[in-house]
From TrEMBL:
Pfam families: Glrx-like
InterPro entries given in the database record: Glutaredoxin-like, Glutaredoxin-like_YDR286C, Thioredoxin-like_sf
Domain of life from the UniProt record: Bacteria
Official protein name in the record: Glutaredoxin family protein
Amino acid sequence: MSPLFRRKTADVAAAAADPRAPHERLVTLIRKPGCHLCDDAQAVIEKVCGDLSVPWEEKDITQDPRLHDAYWEQIPVVLVDGEQHTFWRVDEERLRKALTE
C-alpha cells in the first residue's frame, strides 16, 4: 500500500472518530491589518482548512472593541470552535491534529 493511500485512510479514520463533521468545525483567525504574523497564520489556516474542508473566518480587532480588549497583545489568535487554540504563531500539524482528533 502506498504511503499516500495510508495517509488518506488515516485522515478519514481520524475524522470519523470525531462526532463532528469537518463542516461543523469552525476556525476563527483574529487579526489586524498590516500584521505580518497574521498573514503567516492565515496561510497556514487556509492550507489546513482547505485540506480538511473545514470552514474558517477572520475577524479584525480594529473593528470590534470586545475582540481588541481581549486579544490585542496576542494577535494573531486562532480559535477552534470558539476556544482559543493558539496565538502569535500557528503550527500546521498542531492545528491539523486539533481539527481531526
